[in-house]
Design brief:
By secondary structure, this protein is of the alpha+beta class. Helices cover about 25% and strands about 35% of the residues. The chain has one domain (about 5-85).
């Protein structure tokens, strides 16, 4: 597992556990030493989640949809993303 993968794993675990305060990162800030920015996800009837992106890096976007309780990395389920990395 690369350093970036370990970082993504930590972020995903914090999101799943409810320890990630997404409102705090709506403006670009450091999160465990890496710049992140959170963008709310909206649909026609309101906010349904948020996207975590990494400005000025090649890190994939992490998206959490709390309506469907889905966490994805580059539009792939986060578990499958990490399984793929181990192959």
């Amino acid at each position: 597992m690369t350093k970036d993968d370990k970082y993504l794993w930590r972020l995903c675990k914090n999101i799943i556990a409810g320890r990630f305060n997404w409102r705090r990162y709506c403006s670009r800030q450091s999160y465990y030493g890496r710049e992140i920015c959170v963008t709310p996800l909206f649909c026609s009837y309101g906010q349904i989640g948020y996207t975590v992106n990494f400005p000025y890096s090649r890190m994939p976007d992490v998206e959490y949809d709390w309506e469907f309780d889905e966490l994805t990395i580059d539009e792939m389920d986060y578990r499958k993303y990490f399984e793929q990395e181990q192959d």
